[in-house]
Fold each of these.
Amino acid sequence: MKPDPDILDYRCTTAEFAAADPQMALLPLGATEQHGAHLPCGTDTFQADYLADEIAHRLPIWRLPTIPITVSHMHRGSPGTVWLSNETLMAVVKDVVLSLRSQGLKKVVLLNGHGGNFVLRPIIQDLNRDYDDLRVILLEASVPERVFQEPPGSIHAGESETSRMLHIAPDLVKMELAVNTDVPYSQSFLLYAPIKELEPSGVWGHAADATPEKGERYHQLYVDAAVTAIQDTFAALDRIRPLQAR
């Protein structure tokens, strides 16, 4: 495995990290869970990996390894699904962030590739409350164009995720098994029941309408928006609430 000279990540040596002296880190979070019959269980992790690499090519940032197992118990009962509890994910993220802080790094971006990680918001809020010398943000980037046509409530393994996987890992997509579904529930029902009881196929969207061109277009727009969002959010926070020295 060769290092990428344009990315600071775990392929670098400790001497290279010392020389780079990074001031900002990117922590991607994926998941390992069912994505219907047509997508791999690692879909969220593949997507988070791709976006993290693209962002790291554009910003001077420490690209941390993607956490591949997070809060996926809303897919319990579906083969290939594994998960952490909310409490465990909270502890893992906090430990990672504080280990970065111990090295003097003050700015951390969480890139969430899995919609079920609802607990990230209170983690971030707590870290920013408890440590005046830290800035932890959740990457929230708005794509300025509607790339996908499926209903807004489509949230899992549908046109969006399938198109994105067709762009980044087409060999892992089985389009002949892709289906379209219109689930008569809101996302909040995942707080009450696993997805297999709400939609047996495990697909919550229009997967059969996916194309690699849509996935590529979305990624182009998202990466541009993500880089801008990271820069603008930290700049705004520097004005609102200057970092304290340790």
Amino acid sequence: MSNSGRGLAVTTLRSQFLLCGLLGVIWSYTALPSFRLTLPAHNIASRIIAGERFKPEVLPQMLSQMEAAPRPDIMQSEYYRAYAVVGQYTSEVAAQDNSSGLDRELSGAESRLRAALSVTPSDAFLWLLLYSVETARNGFDPAYVGLVEKSYIAGPHEGWIALRRNRLALAVFALLNDITQKAVVTEFSELVDSDFIDVAASNLTTIGWEHRAPLLAALEQADVASRESLARRLSRDGFKVSIPGVDRDDRLWRR
């Protein structure tokens, strides 16, 4: 290669590095405000999902701060999710307090959830929250059952979602399609297998009692020790049912 050719290649390479550096600066300028806005909201949302309790004024204050903050040009999908989660639980606080602004809170929660789902339609938890908001705002409608089904399509084996979702799904079990019914039954078995015995027992003996036959049959896949724990819990509550692989020996029930 001639000297002029080498010089041209070096100049081109330098230009490319300069362009990459310039793009990096531009990206940092536009994206960093989004990170600063998203991080505290994401932390709060994660704590909400984990079941942490907050003082009644905390979540409304957080929501107000998020709504008042200037929006950067680039928004992370995590922000939309956190915004939706905080907003939905704020509406739950309003419902518990019988707030006069409940309908406004529920309407806002619905809008935020739909916006988040437009960015991340594969989020099983957001579909479940949308179902909760729709039924709280408008009353039960069979059309909303599709939201539960979308939650199972997006994440059929999400243990932390199951703690809330399984009970809601059992309440509309007869309206679910066959594939979703199988997913609900499997999820119940997974709750037992993961030793969420109290949750599983409550789901079975209340809202799921009508569907106990398929629920109990599915326990064949669960760990035998977990099945025995469930059997003892049910026995203490006055329910003696047939659980696959568990011998109904009187000694077992007295433990």
Amino acid sequence: MFIFSLMAGVCRAEEKWVADEIFLQMSEMRKSIQALQNQVNDLARKVNDLTPRKPGIPLAGTEKMTMGRQDAGVAVIEFSDFECPFCAKHYKKVLPKLRKTYFDSGIVKYLMKDFPLAFHGEAKKAAVAARCAGEQGKYWAMHDGIFEAQGKLGDETYIAGAEKLGLKMDKFRACLNDPVQAKRVDEDMALGEKLGVQGTPAFFIGRVKDGALTDYQRLDGVQSFETFAGVIDGLVKVKQ
């Protein structure tokens, strides 16, 4: 009987030692896992620090070509070509829904940048015409008129459009031939090329900070309203 009791005591002592050893090893494993997690987090921070930041897209000087509230915290930039059939499709099918849902309500602002493609012979002059109407507060009206007149673009169309809008015609005609306006179109082209734009339409959707578009996402080609809404809603929620 004594021997059985002694053996039982030894077994209990051994079980306790095994249990203590298991708990000790588990504790050491937790420490090792935490150390590895700290190393992973540290590496992630270093990689993030080394990742090149997207350059902010300057918004200064675009006020006359902006739809929506100037102080909106989220913005969409479109690089467009007035002779591009895909840009016309966006104008007719998607832009009205975006305007009604986001721009007219002041949640988001919409900015145009010119990117007339080389094989569209009238696109640059059309861009200048829209800008000249913008000098008299009618950019978007001329923008719409030019897209509605696709296939019939030329000075006669721009002049007729300006007369219909009640613009000061001497001022408008002089503006059409002003090299400053053509230079501004070229500056938009250079910016687009710097950002990697190769075709139209191209869109950049992001937050507005310190006069520039930041944390933006790029969309190329005609996109559905739902695609725009998904990106915009995410930014608006983050901002809120």
Amino acid sequence: MKANGQSGTTQQDISEPGWRSFLAEFVRDPRSTAAIAPSSRRLARRMLDGLELTGAVTLVEYGPGTGVFSREAARRLGPDVDFIAIERNARFAERLREQLPAVDVYHGDAQEVLNVLRAHDKEHADAIISGLGWPSIPDEPREAILEATAKALRPGAEFRTFGYHIGLTMRGAWSFRKTVRRLFSEVTISPVIWANLPPAFVYRCVK
């Protein structure tokens, strides 16, 4: 695939784990799935680069889907890291439990992150990553998830998520940016990752 005049593959074709199941879920419920394909490995690497994933830390993931970010995180985790994933889609959640038994998968909504942490005897998360499609989430639940995320992180911890380049045409994308800039002391945006379908960028938000 070529994007913006650049040649090369996206590292994201039907050989990707879970591609067909992801597309099936999009057809079944496009509003909840919010994408037609799982994220690429290159986006997963950019999402996780620089995060401290060793020592006694707690990592939370929202919306792991077919587990592209989860697998990349699992490759990097130290033995003492607690990895908790919150997935709203029951089929995705069950599949992730089967494929990555070291990940504690909670079937529910990201708004519940504080309750999920308490259930694991955790006061805070040391990092939160997200695969949620923010522009497609209505204003009230999007605000609620982001408010809970800021409360769930310890001071100095990071929230990482991504947006699609094409998604900037949607009002929800700009509302998302406004909210994270209000809730976090530092928000940076990566260059566009063209090797993804659609092209994407990573938000790094520091509490």
